Amino acid sequence: MTPPPDRPTSAAERRIGPDTLAAYLGHLDAADRAGAVALASGLLADGFSVTDVLVDLVAVAQREVGLRWFTGSWSIAQEHAATHVSEQVVDALGATIGPPRRGHVVMACVEGEWHALAARIVTEVVRAAGWRVTFLGASVPARHLVSYLHQTGPDAVLLSCVQPNRLVRAARMVEASRAAGVPVLAGGPGFGPDGRWAATIGAAGWGASARDAVALLERPLSAAHTGAPPPPPDDAYVAVLHRRRELVRLALAAVDPPQESAEDVAAGIAHLVDALIAAVRVDDDRLLRDFVGWQEEALTSRGGRALLGEVLGTLERALTEHPRVVARLRAARDGAPDGPGRAG
């Protein structure tokens, strides 16, 4: 019996392979806009969709770019240049998408969040699925978001959060959106592994990728996803939030960094305090422990001296009237290295 002829493989059944990814990363490394756009456009000509190229090439490459920065193999300047090239690729692919045929959604990044490329990718993938999408950009204050929602009345807000220390700000944006009658669909690692903290702050759903955002928009969003969000377990996080500046000042004085690094250390301490506030807000020790571990690794990869033990100890001493907060700090401190001036 003669076997049937081989069936041609469709674009939907193919995957963008490691050689193509390596070539694209080469263009990013060289800040080669023309080469990166040509490669992406060539994939469209080969039958891959805009979604395929954005999710399986550009987004994957950006994760590698972030890893190279994190491990110190790329400088901040190299990371910025590569990200800018990918932004231009997103622009070029977005220009090929047809007019909308479905409802209106708004895409925003949490206030203080300046990593906007992932949100840009989600924007174009959702547009490719037929939605009209308004991209509000990086670091959108809650009050400006809610004003825009009242003006435009979209079907949903897509909210991007990359870092969990900004989760309290995300909670404010979710609360403001729900009060305006607009449900929020969350995305990004800032909402925790598997998005575990998204529902805690009142989001209607969470997605790990741009394809997930499209799938979430296919589901009905009911009145249960608007109005007052679930209340926090208690108001301890508010007390810490009100003392944020004081806590940063105390911890900075305790570690007393050299003048040339004082600004960077102060920023790192502020991020850690924000992570503490977020951990109390969502009632999960893992948030602060994981954030401390990330900060420790980031410092080590750059040869910086670990200050985390002293910072955490200072925060403990300043917050003794909040036992639940102190317990979280101690849990995080268990794995932190000794800071300068801390006795064994």
Automatic annotation (TrEMBL):
<dbReference type="InterPro" id="IPR006158">
    <property type="entry name" value="Cobalamin-bd"/>
</dbReference>
<dbReference type="GO" id="GO:0050667">
    <property type="term" value="P:homocysteine metabolic process"/>
</dbReference>
<dbReference type="InterPro" id="IPR050554">
    <property type="entry name" value="Met_Synthase/Corrinoid"/>
</dbReference>
<feature type="domain" description="B12-binding">
    <location>
        <begin position="102"/>
        <end position="231"/>
    </location>
</feature>
<dbReference type="GO" id="GO:0031419">
    <property type="term" value="F:cobalamin binding"/>
</dbReference>
<dbReference type="InterPro" id="IPR003759">
    <property type="entry name" value="Cbl-bd_cap"/>
</dbReference>
<dbReference type="GO" id="GO:0046872">
    <property type="term" value="F:metal ion binding"/>
</dbReference>
<dbReference type="GO" id="GO:0046653">
    <property type="term" value="P:tetrahydrofolate metabolic process"/>
</dbReference>
<dbReference type="InterPro" id="IPR036724">
    <property type="entry name" value="Cobalamin-bd_sf"/>
</dbReference>
<keyword id="KW-0170">Cobalt</keyword>
<protein>
    <submittedName>
        <fullName>Methanogenic corrinoid protein MtbC1</fullName>
    </submittedName>
</protein>
<dbReference type="GO" id="GO:0008705">
    <property type="term" value="F:methionine synthase activity"/>
</dbReference>
<dbReference type="InterPro" id="IPR036594">
    <property type="entry name" value="Meth_synthase_dom"/>
</dbReference>
<dbReference type="GO" id="GO:0005829">
    <property type="term" value="C:cytosol"/>
</dbReference>
<dbReference type="Pfam" id="PF02310">
    <property type="entry name" value="B12-binding"/>
</dbReference>
<dbReference type="Pfam" id="PF02607">
    <property type="entry name" value="B12-binding_2"/>
</dbReference>
<keyword id="KW-0479">Metal-binding</keyword>
